[in-house]
Amino acid sequence: MKQRIITAVIAAAIFLPIVIFGGWPFIAMVYIIASIGLYEALKMKKLTLYSIPGFLSLVLLWIFLIPSQYSGFLKEIDYTKVEIFFLGVLLLLAYTVISKNRFSYEDVAFSIMSILYVGLGFYFFIETRDANLIYVFYSLFIIWATDSGAYFIGRAIGKHKLWPEISPNKTTEGFFGGVASALVVALLFSILGDMEVSVIILLAATAFLSIFGQIGDLVESALKRYYHIKDSGNILPGHGGMLDRFDSLLFVWPLIHLLHLL
User: Fold this and answer.
1) Which burial class, exposed, middle or buried, applies to 239 when counting CB atoms under 10 A from its CB (0-12, 13-18, 19+)?
2) pLDDT of residue 1
3) Cα dihedral sign for 7, 35, 143, 147?
4) Residue percentage of the chain with pLDDT more than 90
5) Total domains in the fold of the chain
6) Torsions phi, psi of 79, nearest 5?
7) Where is the protein situated, by its record's location annotation (predicted)?
8) Where are the alpha helices (DSSP H) in 99-229?
9) What is the DSSP letter of 66?
10) Could you give the 3-state DSSP secondary structure of residue 201?
């Protein structure tokens, strides 16, 4: 626990000022985190970035992450992100032939899903920061509250396993405790922050986001269990990898936009 706290304090001291500052330092940080996340995802299936398909996957991720405000140059070359992505998929499929199936159709599918899994979340992280900084802090704090509430309430009164096949330590009581904790934080944001929606809508959206944040956590747990690994990486001592830290937020940031909170 001591190591987790020390890592969290150091990471927050680096992460939060860059988020607040925004601009190119923030975008560069997101690109670095997302690239590490893709590396961790591919490593689960024993794929590497240090290969032709790995490098191509990384390039596709970087293109995917281009913020909307800087994507004008794509129009100048008369291509969209979707068209470039489709071209990348075709190149990955072509590589299955070149590699004589050492890089297989299944590997192509895993690479594409990894790009989308990591890319969607971090792209909308950039878009959320560009739209309104307070919603970045809102997303961070409701997920931190969800995680903390689920952990402490689950330990205190948790008796019913939530999904033991995927994550044996999570309980139903902790699940609802996490949602309740997130609602308390959302209420504080509504009172103290400059949120652009009514209290009722914010609380309803928060409950939804808290639930899907926990689902995002379980999705990554299922992925790790399937590939028989404990953590996605070890870059954050006591916490694991980047995907271990951002698994919930990779679901929450896109949903903030799909719910039209911004």
Assistant:
1) middle
2) 63
3) negative
4) 78
5) 2
6) -130, 150
7) Cell membrane
8) 105-131, 133-157, 172-192, 199-226
9) -
10) helix
Choose among 121, 138, 178, 120: nearest CA to 261: 138
User: By C-alpha distance, which of 129, 126, 136, 139 is closest to 206?
Assistant: 139
* The pLDDT value given to residue 195: 86
Same domain, 110 and 209: no
Q: How many CA atoms lie within 13 A of 133 on its CB side?
A: 9
| pLDDT of amino acid 223 | 95
The number of beta carbons lying within 10 Å of the beta carbon of residue 251 is: 23
Q: Are 4 and 238 in contact (CB under 8 A)?
A: yes
Question: 206, 203, 185, 181: which is closest to 256 by C-alpha?
Answer: 206
Reference 7, options 234, 253, 246; nearest CA is: 234
Q: At 184, which amino acid appears? A: V
pLDDT at 145 over 70: yes
Highest mean pLDDT among 4-8, 32-36, 79-83 belongs to: 32-36
Distance CA(224)–CA(143), nearest Å, equals 21
User: From CA 114, how far away is CA 121, in angstroms rounded?
Assistant: 11
Amino acid sitting at position 179: V
Of 79, 97, 131, the residue at which a domain comes to its end is: 131
| Same domain as 121, residue 14 | yes
How far is Cα 58 from Cα 34, in angstroms, rounded to an integer?
9
235: helix, strand or coil: coil
Position of tokens 């995917």?
A: 64
